[in-house]
Amino acid sequence: MANQEDVFKKVISHAKEYGYVFQSSEIYDGLSAVYDYAQNGVELKKNIREYWWRAMVQLNDNIVGLDAAIFMHPTTWKASGHVDAFSDPLIDNKDSNKRYRADVLVEDYVAKIEGKIEKEVKKAAKRFGDAFDKNEFLSTNQRVVDYQEKATTILKRLGKSLENEDLADVKLLIEELEIACPMSGSKNWTDVKQFNLMFGTKLGASAETAMDLYLRPETAQGIFVNFLNVQKTSRMKIPFGIAQTGKAFRNEIVARQFIFRMREFEQMEMQFFIKPGTQKEWYEKWKENRMKWHLSLGLGEDNYRFHDHEKLAHYADAAADIEFRFPFGFKELEGIHSRTDFDLSKHQEFSGKKLQYFDTEENKNYVPYVVETSIGLDRMFLAVFSNSLKEEELENGTTRTVLKLPAVLAPTKAAVFPLVKKDGLPELAMEIINDLKWDFNVLYDQKDAVGRRYRRQDANGTPFCITVDHQSLEDQTVTIRHRDTMEQQRVAIADVKAIIHKEIDMKSWLMKMS
Predict the structure, then answer these.
(1) What is the C-alpha separation between 407 and 503, in angstroms, rounded?
(2) Which of 240, 309, 313, 480 supports an S-S bond with 62, CB 3.0-4.6 Å?
(3) Which residues touch 214 (CB under 8 Å, ≥6 apart)?
(4) Whole-angstrom distance, CA of residue 335 vs CA of residue 267
């Protein structure tokens, strides 16, 4: 575990050192669980957003975009259930005075059991070599079977207790499992209480007439209240989707794990409107489609898994998470939910306006069902960033820190170096920069020896380094170095653009989905 913690600490310090993520208002000692995306972070974030938008909106002729306001009429949140049911079960430790999410304490306990299973699998794989059959081992090794049974039983009980709002049983479960406060080791717990997560604010010129508002805790409701506007103005026929990216706000009491759980975050959501009765089929289709999108980035198939919900939200008839192996274990990255007609029906009821679709084939009106895909952009950023950060041992005995970001997402695509700061080399390097910058984010770097510049760009995640030397003046060629392999090629300056384009072209990356 300590090793994983060390890895995570490196991720956080690398993000700051290389201009990806800063603590918000750091000169005033910062705000807990609020972060700023720095000069490289904002580019990586924009590229992830664009990669999602291209796959979701541009490549689907039945999905359109929306950018709804953060402020919404307060009745929206009454209708959606957020005023009454948007809360976390919290528990305090009486000795350390630390507050925790009760469900997370239990899930972390289960994660340790899963860690033991993984250890057993690794040991067995080493012992049996090529003859090792993982599935057979998982189903026949008694110790592993017992671990799995224990984990499943705990999660089922937790899910059931939360669903029935039996908070006393959640506390009982924590006590039975002898879960201790991670800070103090104490097992002296308070009762579990629900805490609403919405931030309140006011709209109006004076305190007496101001309307109580909420900062939106999710982006989905902006899509639902605009369902009919979008459907009519774009003449969409069911099935169709509305996609949106934007900020959401949650008063997370136990915000933690860097940008994994923040109070201000960004979501990328798509609500897909369908005929009632077809939700199972569309739910499976979107699960498959979204996993393909993730895998297209090449972060490793074994770093993803589906997790079906034991406890369903009040609006869902099926729900699964795509979980990713973060440095602190498998955690939710994206949710796929079959939301039934809950949202549109509720908004219809509370607003008094019909939110129905006239199906010309069926010759009748109905409230559509919805399948949702919802991914946290900040979590996706953390997944990509943490997975890409590597320490590599080189043949000459030295090590290098390299950020192997998927080239399509890298903030800077190429760095151009003059070998020395004289003899017309900087001028030629700038000519190359001025040509490339119309197509890509590129930067000029002339400080330090070339080897040190390579290392700096490796750590920065830049896929290509282009070195201009004296030969470049004679024959218009340069050396291009590939970040991942460190391989160097001599190429014509005229070919550089095509070489970079081939590696970073969004089309060729997204085509891996088909």
Answers:
(1) 7
(2) 240
(3) 72, 74, 77, 82, 198, 199, 200, 201
(4) 11
* Spacing of C-alpha 395 from chain mean position: 35
| pLDDT > 80? residue 253 | no
pLDDT band at 2 (very low <50, low <70, confident <90, very high): very low
Query: What's the pLDDT tens digit per position in 138-172?
Result: 889 999 999 999 999 999 999 889 888 899 999 99
What's the confidence (pLDDT) of residue 277?
93
What percent of the chain stands above pLDDT 70?
A: 99
CA–CA distance, 182 with 191 (Å, rounded to integer): 18
* Cα separation, 158 vs 131, whole angstroms: 38
Note the pLDDT tens digit of each residue in 489-503: 999 999 999 999 999
Give 351's Cβ-side CA count (13 Å radius): 17
Q: State the amino acid at position 238 in one-letter form.
A: I
The CA distance from 78 to 65, in Å, is 25
Task: Quote the CA–CA distance of 38 and 9 in Å, as a whole number.
Answer: 18
**Cα atoms in the 13 Å half-sphere on the side-chain side of 444:** 16
* Nearest by Cα to 82 from 239, 248, 202: 248
CB 245 within 8 A of CB 52: yes
CB 88 within 8 A of CB 107: no
Describe the crossing of helices 167-176 and 142-163 by its angle, rounded to 10 degrees. 150
- The CATH class given to the 87-196 domain equals alpha beta
**pLDDT value at residue 1:** 42
Half-sphere exposure of 262 (CA within 13 A, CB side): 23
Cβ count within 10 A of residue 478: 25
Instruction: Calculate ∠ Cα 377-382-388, nearest 5°.
Output: 125
Tens-place pLDDT, residues 13-27: 999 999 999 999 999
Single out the residue of 313, 283, 299 nearest to residue 405, CA to CA: 299
The pair of structure tokens assigned to 503 is 């590696």
Asked if 87-196 and 412-513 have one fold, the answer is: no
Burial class (CB in 10 A: 0-12, 13-18, 19+), 405: buried
Both tokens assigned to 448: 């330090």
The pLDDT value recorded for residue 296 is: 96
The CATH fold assigned to 412-513 is: Rossmann fold (3.40.50)
Ranges of each domain in the chain:
87-196, 412-513
442-444 and 414-418 beta bridge pairing: parallel
